[in-house]
Amino acid sequence: MKRVRIYTDGACRGNPGPGGWAAVLIWGPHRKELWGGEPHTTNNRMELRAAIEALKALKEPVEVDLYTDSAYLKRGVSEWLPRWKRAGWKRRQGKKALPLANEDLWRELDRLTQVHRVRFHWLAGHAGHPENELADKLARSAIPHQD
User: Fold this and answer.
1) I want to staple 20 with a disulfide (CB 3.0 to 4.6 A). Which of 30, 115, 118, 143 is the partner?
2) Structure pTM?
3) What are the b/e assignments for 92-124, b being 16+ CB within 10 Å?
């Protein structure tokens, strides 16, 4: 099975506000850069969108090492997602079941992680890692400008 490295980032001007996302995909000598933006969103939605769009760009099932500087994305996938699914896509606050923020994106990400064998890795943002810095730059440049 092929192995792909993906570096993702999301950015927002205001939170909520206009936002951008980006991903850098690397397979052997091949490299692909993806980015996009939304006029009214949140930073967390852009972090999720970056991972989703990167996984959607893969043409066949592969092993993926996905690197993110988003604790929300990393913890959501590795810690919270199994609980949310067991609870019917709800989060718990005490004994109360509350709506899950960004449920639409979490469901889509969950579906895509069933297609590929994905390992999520957290890395510190703005720490000089070239691909993470590139994803950050692309995400910021993808933020729609409001006139």
Assistant:
1) 143
2) 0.94
3) eeeeeeeebebeebbebbbebbeebebebeeee
